Amino acid sequence: MSEPSTPSYVDRDVRQRELLPPQRLSRCHAIVVGVGAIGRQAAMQLAAAGVPAMDLVDHDVVAVENLAVQGYAPADLGMAKVEVTAAACLKLNPDLRVTAHAHRFRRSSVNELPALQDQQAGGDPVLESMLFCCVDDVLARRLVWEATRHRLAFFADGRMAAEVLRVLVSTNPPADAYYASTLFSPERAYAGSCTARSTIYSASIAAGLMVGAFARWLRGLPVERDLVLNLLAAELTVA
User: Fold this and answer.
1) Each residue of 197-239: pLDDT tens digit?
2) Residue 60: which residues within 8 A CB-CB, separation 6 or more?
3) Is residue 127 assigned to a domain?
4) Which pTM was predicted?
5) Element housing 153 (H / E)
6) Environment class of residue 91 by beta-carbon count within 10 Å: exposed (0-12), middle (13-18) or buried (19+)?
7) What residues form DSSP beta bridges with 56?
8) Which residue range is the domain that position 104 belongs to?
9) Is residue 98 a contact partner of residue 56, using CB atoms and an 8 Å limit?
10) Tens digit of pLDDT for each residue in 8-34?
11) 222, part of any domain
């Protein structure tokens, strides 16, 4: 009786290779800060696409109100969101090197994320670092941006208020002057958490827009820096 053959996944990406160049993708290390509505969807899309390495950062645990809008299962209740999301990503891509950090992003977090270390500090000189910011308040966004921008090759920020989505992208974070202008003071920001009213379809679309911008960047194509999509009004605005 012959031994069962080991399945080969060498062609798992065959239908996307012209859209996400394998050689460029293989040098990417993604960081997803916040794995709630948008961040969980972004992490799973990146894993399925074939990003080789990923860090997930979030302090929260799965609660009942997360089930419908963030795609978590009842069996996940009480578990750390980063642990559950990491496991889901590994089901999509077992070769992914994923690390879960079950705490809030802090300024000192740059010292524990290999993707943000330079070569002298032990970082991998081969990899390019990109960050997907999916937090739900302006102070957290400002902290993430200011702490990481000088160490990134690509940055994307996904925001959501009910059925209005905003995706901001920087393809040269160290020299970017525009993104900081979108970080309003708390008094001017949206009242309450921007994900207080949300749906899983809005989150999935926002994540898709972020990952789509990442794919365009991989191919060296122009990327819109500020895009607003109002699903209710069927309006798309590009700054």
Assistant:
1) 789 999 999 999 999 999 999 999 999 999 999 999 999 999 8
2) 36, 80, 81
3) yes
4) 0.91
5) none
6) exposed
7) 32, 100
8) 22-238
9) yes
10) 778 889 999 999 999 999 999 999 999
11) yes
